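To: structure desk
From: M.T.
Subject: fold request, one chain
Message: Could you run this one when you get a chance? Sequence is below, nothing fancy, just the single chain.
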Amino acid sequence: MNSVKALAESPDLSCIPSIYINSANSTEPPASDLQDAIPTIDFSLLTSDNPKLRSQVIQELYFACKDWGFFRVINHSVTESLMNMVIEKSKEFFDLRDEEKKEFEENGVLDPIRYGTSFNSKKDEIFYWRDYLKIIVHPEFNCPNKPLGLREVLLEYSKRTREVVKGLLSGISTSLGLDQCYVEKALKLESGLQILVANLYPPCPQPELAIGFPPHSDHGLLTLLINNGVGGLQIKHKGKWVNVNNDLPNSFLVNTADQLEIFSNGKFKSVEHRAIVNNAVTRLSVVVANGPSLDAVVEPAYKLVTEERCPSAYNPMKYKEYLEMQQGNQIIGKTCLDRVRV
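Reply: Done. Structure tokens follow.
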């Protein structure tokens, strides 16, 4: 396995190897800038003592999940200094010598720590302009022993982001007409899987030919994203690709994922997104994917299913099986989710 970082730093690199050329780029229309404002959720209002304010933000959360599958979260419990340290320590990991990082080369999709390139380098026909570090941080916390301070920063960050996710899912549960703890109990969130992924997208000499990460939806419930201020994220909104930048200080970009689509019986669609690259600066993003417990069987909430008006649109599947199915194959749009549709 050769890292994209090492390739990008080659002194004579003027064009990319053919394995990185994504032919779909030539047929894709260019992404546009957003015409509508991305919904912004004030997290502090979800715990407000004022029932009117809480009801209002729950309605906003319902709209964000139903019409966008994507929103910003502000006024949460994670400090800006901690978020900055997560980015900095992730950068320090990628700056380690290759022999130090290769200690964590992936073998299986549920390895507690995985370092690699592309998506599934053993099966990808086209490689993506991306290196990654994936760490399972809950229900058991794992972390590389380098660089110094990474473990402490990620341990605190994983705890704080779980609090944010728990609050958001409580509001989402209420917005669906369910008890506020319904999602938490039904999907065993106390032992829910949380994976932290640091993505490195180095400068690419031919960005129009490569892609950082292809169109896909995420496997879990909610994904939280921060980055180093460099753009490159695109989402599919109303059938068209649009550029998204996290330009609000101390905010998360949050997207809905496949298990939430299944659980909501299709009311909330998981959103397709992708990462593009540029030829000037490195983009670094850190995402935290939050899912059910691995042994939870995910299916539409029974209160959202009626035989006549709203039959179940998805077959039940254990989350671990879904995760292995998606992560163990090539990633193409929402094809994995299509396999569990009725």
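Reply (cont.): The first helix runs from residue 4 to 8. Let me know if you need anything else for the meeting.
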